Amino acid sequence: MGLWETVRARTRPKRNDLDALFLVPSAAITLQTTLGLVPTGSGSVCYRSAAGAAFAQTQDDVLALLRDDAEAPDVTVSQDDFGFTWLVVTGDPADLSGLCTGLHAVNTTLELNGFAGGLLCSLVPFADAAGRRVGLTYLYKQGTFYAFAPSGEQTRDTLLELSVRDQLDKELPMEPDLQRWLAVWKAPGL
C-alpha cells in the first residue's frame, strides 16, 4: 500500500480472477477423496439485475449462449428473498468442467457488458452419501472462494466449512476473512 492510500485509509480493491473457476474440477477430486463430497451437477451465478433494455438483452444473450451448448444443460432464472437473481445451470454431475465453463461465461458476459457491479457470487454445490451439502462459493468482488454448508433452516455446519477450507487452501484462493463467508440461505442447489 502506498503513502497516499495510507493517508486516505483506502486500499485498492482486489481484482477478481474469474479463471479461478477453472480450478474447481481439480478441487472436486480433493473433496471427493478426503470428505466424500461429489458435485451435484448444478451451479449458479448470483447477481443484482439492472433495469433497462441493455441488461435484459445481456441476460437473454447469456441464456441463449448456455442453451446453445451441444449438451444443452437446463438453465433457469429465479429471484431470492433479497432481490438477487440466481441463474442456475443444471447438467451432468460428471461434467464439472463444462459447468464451470458455463458459469465463467455468465460472469464474463455480465462483466464485459458493464454489469460487473451487480455480480455477487458463483456457487457450485457438492453433497455426500450422508446428505450433507456444501456450496463452494466464489466471491466475485474478492476473487476468493469459501464453503457454505447449511445444516438446517438457519443453521450451518461450520466444522464442515472449515474442513473444506483446510482441504482446498493449497488448490483454490480461499477467503481468509471468515466474516466474508456469507450465508446464502435458500441458494439454488443447496
Overview of this structure, please?
There is one protein chain. The radius of gyration is 17 Å and the shape is globular. It contains five helices and seven strands; from the N terminus they run ααββαββαβββα. It has a single domain (11-180), classed as Alpha-Beta Plaits (2-Layer Sandwich). A hairpin with a 5-residue loop joins strand 5 (119-127) and strand 6 (133-139). The chain starts with a helix and ends in a 22-residue tail after the last helix. The longest helix is centred in the middle third of the chain and has 17 residues, at 96-112. It has 190 residues and is α+β, with helices and mostly antiparallel strands. Pfam families: PspAB (PF22742).
Short characterization:
This protein has 5 helices and 7 strands, in the order ααββαββαβββα. It is an alpha+beta fold and 190 residues long. It holds the Pfam family PspAB.
